[in-house]
Inverse folding.
């Protein structure tokens, strides 16, 4: 521990073969840093859901992370279709995923709610037809 | 409970014989919805599913599952199998449908935790 660490992973839309690789790498980094298991578990859930959203809905995107002594912050930025109503998208069970995505077991409308539940803060900004930025933060130490 | 013991007790078929099966199974989870599994399963769980595509390995690996059981004699896609071996996630199949399999896992003492 001690010093801050940051990095970036690039994501390609519809690349299901490599989907989850960025989240796995991030999990590995947290393990190497000796981050507590529960924090790693929560980060993995949020990162995977956010990564899959880019894979499923966007043309391309990236996942940036920054780990300090006090928090993990992760930002996903994509060039994609955007989210018309973030409020609707945050509703458990709401999904716009096409059938073939649902058949794979994605698109159950649990992604964003899962991220919200697993993180200490979540901000989503989106412009329809341009893309979405999703930013979440998980505290490493209790109470700021 | 030891994974190998579960496999022997229920005569399950191992698709990844190259992986060590002596690992602790903490409990079980059943779902074909990946977000459900991400959100609600636990580390060390054996995951029972109908899904066979490559992304199940990412989920199992991120959650630290002890293995995946495919039901109804489902076989993993070739890429799924390769990734499973690379990520050290045992894949097991059974001809049993989910209901029958999970009943037997429960009878062995596994719980959802």
């Amino acid at each position: 521990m001690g010093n801050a660490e940051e990095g970036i992973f690039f994501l390609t839309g519809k690349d299901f073969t490599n989907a989850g690789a960025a989240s796995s790498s991030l999990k590995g980094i947290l393990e190497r840093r000796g981050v507590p298991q529960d924090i790693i578990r929560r980060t993995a859930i949020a990162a995977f859901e956010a990564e899959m959203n880019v894979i499923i809905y966007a043309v391309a995107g990236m996942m940036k992370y920054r780990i300090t002594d006090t928090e993990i912050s992760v930002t996903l930025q994509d060039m994609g279709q955007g989210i018309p109503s973030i409020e609707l998208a945050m509703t458990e069970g709401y999904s716009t995923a096409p059938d073939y995505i649902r058949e794979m077991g994605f698109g159950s409308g649990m992604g964003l709610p899962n991220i919200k539940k697993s993180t200490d803060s979540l901000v989503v900004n989106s412009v329809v037809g341009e893309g979405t930025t999703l930013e979440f933060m998980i505290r490493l130490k209790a109470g700021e | 409970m030891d994974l190998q013991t579960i496999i022997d007790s229920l005569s399950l078929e191992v698709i990844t014989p190259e992986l060590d099966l002596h690992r602790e199974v903490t409990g079980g989870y059943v779902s074909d919805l990946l977000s459900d599994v991400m959100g609600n399963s636990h580390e060390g769980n054996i995951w029972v599913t109908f899904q066979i595509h490559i992304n199940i390995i990412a989920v199992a690996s991120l959650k630290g599952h002890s293995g995946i059981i495919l039901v109804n004699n489902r076989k993993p896609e070739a890429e799924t199998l390769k990734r499973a071996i690379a990520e050290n996630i045992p894949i097991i199949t059974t001809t049993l449908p989910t209901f029958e399999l999970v009943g037997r896992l429960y009878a062995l003492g596994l719980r959802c935790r």
Summary: The mean pLDDT of chain B is 98.
